[in-house]
Amino acid sequence: MQAMKVFIRLSNLSSRRSQFHSRILGHYLHQSCCVHGEGIPLKMPSLSPTMVEGKIVKWFKKEGDPIEPGDVLCDIETDKAVVSFETDEEGTLAKILVDQTNDLVKIGTLIAVLAPEGEDWKTIEIPVDATCSPPSAPSVNVDGIAIAVTQPSSGIATSDIRKFGPSVRLLLQEYGLSADQIVKSGPRDVLLKGDVLNYIQSTGVKKVKKTAESPVKSTPAAAAKAAEPEAIPSTATYSDVDVSNMRRAIAKRLLQSKSGTAHSYATMDCCIDALLALRRKLKKDGIAVSLNDFVVKAVAMSLLDHPALNKVWRGAEAVVSPSVDVSVAVATPSGLITPIVRDADRLGVKEISNTIRELAGRAKINKLKPEEFEGGSFSISNLGMFGIREFTAVINPPQCGILAVGSGAPVLNGDGVFETRMRATLSYDRLVVDDAEATEFLATLAKFLEDPTQMLLGVREARTRSVHLP
Questions:
Q1: Which of 52, 112, 226, 458 has the fewest C-beta atoms lying within 10 Å of its C-beta?
Q2: 359/357 Cα distance (integer angstroms)
């Protein structure tokens, strides 16, 4: 009977231990979430097929603001453009975890938390830096026996809540400063580069000299000491230029294109006097179009005759695009972007002009939608308006060709008469387009540019699509 009592007591103790472990584990699992309670997490979205990280340019909402489906929360700089981030959730913005700094944030990183509709947003608990410090291992007494509960590590150390850009961090290191010494003017008490520079200028603090011990070596007494580098005057000023996410992405894609695509080139000259005369006539009639608008139209029609140049890569295959979508390079403060003139072969020159003007205007203020610059079957880069006579362009994958257009210049022809000749260089993927096809494409293009009436009226062989007058 006594043995039975001992067994029952031990069984009860084991059961109570098990229940305690369950309660502790349940409590830990609840506390280890980055968003406590019923908060709705908002993570860095993927806003383009090639995006792996982004930078928040501007928040349009602040903590405590009501959020409705379709509201724009912030602008995010992707690898291609600045895109507005709209949410489908409803509630109140409880916490902003990533400020509008120069730091790049990987896709899937928690950037903000919403409180569901009807709940007090101030009760949503967010740990510092969106991470949780694991609760200390409790020790309790069960029936006189002390039980220590070991909790699993989250694997994420709680870091300083302050976020510094790389230039700020470098200045702090170079001048041996602490962020606590400097008054911060950024949103949510973020230290900005200007804050550090103002502090350096007002206090006159000098850079910390780096000293490194090296083994003593015996040298001849007459050996001259190595000349020390000339110190930068304390009055010298400089400024760091942050490289945008778009520029980084452009450089990466161009490098991949040059190293992974069999670039080949062909250059041609064509007389554009008739084209310039037509442009002047249209201008008198109140139709304002640019030389580049005619080039886009001529390229689009030439691509119909030479579909090999209208191919795009789809995985391991290059396929002919079902439509002629011409990407036109536009320079913006953030970098180069290529808005697309869809179905350019079906548009009149005036329609092309209006489309390019509208897209370029929004591109320069980072207001393009992803579908307006992603895709395209062929690209055009025109530097002629800057006086560039000739240049070569890098193919924009997954496309197989790009035309680099230079400026027109007076040239003495064989009859001793000056004519305006424009030079254009075709870059093409030699794996897809052979030299003969590239040459024929340029010949067709020159025909349209030298005799623009064919381009406007659609007078050419094997043409099946309608062409509109400008």
A1: 226
A2: 6
pLDDT one-digit tens code per residue, 399-456? 999 999 999 999 988 888 999 999 999 999 999 999 999 999 999 999 999 999 887 7
Residue (of 184, 140, 117, 158) closest to 32 by Cα position: 158
- Transcribe 395-427 into DSSP letters: --TTBSEEEEEEEEEEEE-TTS-EEEEEEEEEE
DSSP string, 6-40: HHHHHHHHHHHHHHHHHHHHHHHHHHTSSS-TT-E
Q: How many CB atoms lie within 10 A of CB 324?
A: 24
Give the tokens for residue 459: 């007078």
Distance between alpha carbon 434 and the CA centroid of its chain, in Å? 33
Residue 72: CB atoms within 10 Å: 13
Contact 60, 30 (CB under 8 A): no
Residue 340's SS3 state is strand
Whether the model pTM is above 0.85:
no
Q: What is the pLDDT of residues 23-41, one digit of tens each?
A: 433 333 333 344 445 688 8
Contact present, 306 and 437 (Cβ < 8 Å): yes
Alpha carbons within 13 A on the beta-carbon side of 104 = 16
List of the chain residues with pLDDT < 70: 1-38, 102, 125-165, 186-189, 210-236, 457-470
